[in-house]
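Could you help me review a protein record that somebody else here produced? My question to you is simply how this chain folds and whether the tokens agree. Thanks in advance; the entry in question is below:
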Amino acid sequence: MKKAVIYARYSSDSQTEQSIEGQLRVCKEYAERENIKIVDTYIDRAMTGTNDHRPAFQQMLQDSKKKGFEFIIVYKFDRFARSRHDSAVNKAILKKNGVKVISATELITDSPEGIILEGILESFAEYYSAELSQKVKRGRKESLIKRQFVGGRVTFGYYVKDKKVCINEQQAEIVKQVFNDYISGIKLKDIAIKLNSQGITNVLGGKFNINVVSRLLRNKIYTGQYFINGTIYTNVYPQIIDDTTFEKVNKMLSVGKHTGAQKKAPIPFLLSGKLVCGKCKALMTGDSGTGRNGIHYYYKCVNRKKNHTCDKKSVEKNYIENYIINATKLFLKNCKQVKEIANSVAEIFNKEIAKDNVLTSLNAQLKDINRQLNNLANAIANGIFSKTTNEKLNSLETQKEELEIKIAEHSVRKIKPLSSESVYKFLISFAEIDNTDLKACQRLINMFVNKVILYDDYINIAYNISDNSGNNIKLENVEDYTDLGNKLNNKKEQSEPNGSDCSSLVRLRGFEPPLFRTGT
């Protein structure tokens, strides 16, 4: 029997533990139908899907290396990730570990149509996430104008009452003492030791250390200034530290700080999980090195890097990425099968949304809660009333209200059917993307490129598009793309060697190897 784990997540936008229970139930029902054994569950509560900084999610990625399961079942793909880039990167990691992500409510096959449909669904999820973010920001702004607390962790020195932030007098005195101690010359480490010796805990209930004390001293909230979404609000947090004291302390911190170098933004390697060494068939992964002209980024064969069993030279990152992007854009312009794919994608998509498994699940949950409420009402009518029944009644009423809101929201934003023409325009629009738009380029590669095999004198690019007509795919006007190296026009489609699962492959001969870095 195949083994799987379930990943469930809810964000903080009007969702509760009931959301997790609903996701788990639907995923377990799917596993039972497909004869899949569930061996574990991973749950992230009140965690956004716009990035992958989620504890349970990261643990699941680590556990996938142990080969203890073959599938990850999610309620919908947006539970896995709302960011197309994060989704692609993490799915590549899982694919390497032999694990596939399955949606219990979005039945997508491994066909070219299914791969492209998955990309479209993830694009919708990312769009919804951005739209939801704007709505949340507008709601927060209205609340902040009314001096209301908008959620999150309450800063040390304050507490919330009736949606208003109030000063915790006892903690406020501690904050003032920390500022005074630092001005008097006491070191951050000694301030932390002093606080811990007095049994004072930080806002998370843990001990103070240098970093916690430093963040406290730099927190402008203590001056009554609350920064959110680029706007300063001075009417939310009451002031504890006067401006003169705060400026003096932070000037001292700036002079004496010994902070490490700022964490560098990660460099996106667009071909991660797709670029394969033509000599040993191992993956070529992102790497970097420092030379006289600064840091250089390139792709390097895993067997050369780790095992020293391959002599394939590394290839410059920007060169090979632009090469593949330009070739793929040309492929889309000349591929007649895009319209056929668009027709199939629209048909599959419209069948799926017609089922509306989400609304069915929400209505089933509402029906169950109404049944429990009726049972409680009958019990109360018969004189059975206690503190427990009252708490249960209030809990069910709250759950019912939340579900009714979800049903209304889902009905409002229910996705309309897609026309094949709109899908075609969406797909073909990738042929005109700007190569400097990294997000668009990543989507292009994720959606259309199945595999890239890099040889010394040519490249095989396998695409997620079937060519059932048997016609060769002809690349024309490639002279316009200087990044492609030598002329590649009139290069024809060939069958994929060694039984690959992709059905359309373009072989680009006359490949001019880019500059290779010595010593790599």
